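> example.struct
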């Protein structure tokens, strides 16, 4: 296997794991959030009292949902862009701009936030920071862990995009990454479509 083929396979394996972790977290947090919100609404309607503990759980689940979705959103090209400029660029220029953006901005910032977030999690764990919603158990570190985990998934997604754009510029991929017009399972099966430049 050539070095470029190995890079391609590595990016696809990382992509698959980012997607699997993202979908598992999304389903868990979304279903749990729906259940907690429904219970909170029912208690408010029946007993006419609010529950701070349920609100805290809802906020933690929403944070989990948002943070773990970052990597998937980037791989699926679902983040905000200035499309009026991007669409006028050739495919090779888009790939180069994406690579530079990842290497200069996305990867360093994600790395810093993973490191900072991991330090915050460690401090919360060692200090036994309590979570009122869970009977004052020392579980605040679990909530804080969503930040470094989310940015780690985004970092890995950025690595995949850099590799794929490098391979595209080397003539080994059919299109620059990320691609909004391709389903996740197509990404894993190999390059689809033709290059436009």
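> example.seq
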């Amino acid at each position: 296997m050539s070095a470029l083929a190995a890079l391609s396979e590595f990016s696809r394996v990382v992509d698959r794991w980012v997607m699997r972790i993202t979908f598992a977290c999304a389903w868990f947090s979304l279903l749990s959030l729906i259940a907690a919100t429904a219970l909170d609404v029912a208690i408010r309607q029946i007993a006419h009292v609010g529950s701070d503990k349920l609100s805290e759980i809802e906020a933690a689940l929403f944070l989990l949902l948002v943070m773990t979705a970052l990597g998937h959103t980037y791989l699926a090209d679902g983040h905000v862009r200035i499309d009026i400029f991007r669409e006028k660029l050739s495919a090779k220029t888009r790939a180069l701009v994406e690579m530079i953006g990842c290497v200069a901005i996305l990867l360093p910032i994600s790395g810093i936030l993973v490191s900072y977030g991991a330090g915050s999690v460690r401090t919360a764990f060692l200090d036994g920071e309590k979570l009122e919603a869970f009977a004052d158990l020392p579980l605040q570190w679990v909530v804080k862990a969503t930040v470094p985990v989310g940015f780690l998934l985004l970092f890995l997604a950025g690595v995949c995009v850099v590799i794929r754009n490098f391979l595209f510029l080397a003539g080994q991929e059919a299109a620059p990454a990320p691609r909004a017009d391709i389903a996740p399972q197509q990404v894993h099966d190999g390059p689809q479509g033709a290059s436009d430049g």
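> remarks
The radius of gyration is 20 Å.
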